[in-house]
Amino acid sequence: QGQHIPDQAPGTFSSLNEFSTSACGVDFLTTVGNWVLASGVPSERGGDPALHAMAFNRCQDLLGRLSRVELDVISYLNKLLSEQGTDTAGSLTVTLDFYTTKVSPEQVELLSSGMSLCIPSSCRTEREVTFVAFLYFNCVAHSSC
Question: What is the DSSP-derived secondary structure letter of residue 10?
Answer without folding.
Answer: S
